[in-house]
Amino acid sequence: MQFRYLGDSGLKVSELTFGNWLTHGSQVENDTATQCVRAALDVGISTFDTADVYANTQAEVVLGEALKGERRESLEIFTKVYGPTGPKGHNDTGLSRKHITESINGSLKRLQTDYVDLYQAHRYDVETPLEETMQTFADLVRQGKVLYIGVSEWNAQQLRDAAALAKELKIQLVSNQPEYSLLWRVIESEVVPASRELGISQIVWSPVAQGVLTGKYKKGQELPEGSRATDAKGGAGMIARWLKDDVLDAVAQLEPIASDLGLTQAQLSLAWVLQNDNVASAIIGASRPEQVTSNAEASGITLEPEVMSRIEAIFDGLAETDPSKTQMPPRREV
Questions:
Q1: Cα angle value 251/257/262 (rounded, 5°)
Q2: What is the reported pTM?
Q3: What's the Cα-to-Cα distance from 151 to each of 100, 147, 161, 306, rounded to whole Å?
Q4: Less Cβ crowding at N or C end of the chain, within 10 Å?
Q5: What is the CATH number of the domain that holds 115?
Q6: Which listed residue (5, 54, 124, 217) is catalytic?
Q7: End-to-end alpha-carbon separation of the chain, Å?
């Protein structure tokens, strides 16, 4: 396992982060989830990403239990705040001082830790002043509950505004967590250049497009039993946008390239994401420990320019590149 610095900080993270969105506490039984975490540790993954909203707090609980007994100093534990985790009351969401303060306290208890290495604003809050949000984050840093600050799915201007306040408050805004894969490249034209300028890294989610880029879904064939595409708890809704004939035709063309390199399609897709020097880590999920072990082999792979060109030509015209597609939450009802 290789490691990269997160933003302009001195914090190193593993090139692959183990994430438990859509799995722990919902899609995968707790004992299997723990086995996946153990597999991640065995292959050298030290970075773990979750969020309070995943499985309505249960993903944090499962991760906390799975990491119990590990040397805390050897881990980087990330979580997020924004979405509702309680009865969805009027202060149960967003990035207000009240919600952030209550959320970090809950996350620390569930994760069984005194601090998180990275606390991320899960989405931009259009209704709370950014100054309030950043001041609250700064207070958490000074209290020792949070070491570094990150965000998720923020656009270039939002990153610039937050970075300016972080500098003024003397805290480190080091990361953004966007969706990024061969099929979803909306960060490349604006977010990545701004991030390089600001000293911010990307920790990318869905680098294999919810599993589509692994090649497990074939045009004209039944969906694999037990796959994310058959998960009625959330996975099926997310992956449906990629289960189209033109996308599946393109994905099939990755197979001979991967084979020539001695890689699986998942490893090839992960390696492609990691060629972007602004990506500090790619988040992998798993429903079985052997998936973690296999995907970990993508770390440290260098793809030659000719291979990169072949891969990207396959998805020319299919990949989404519009920077305005950066995910934004709707206005909250009062």
A1: 120
A2: 0.92
A3: 13, 14, 12, 34
A4: C
A5: 3.20.20.100
A6: 54
A7: 47
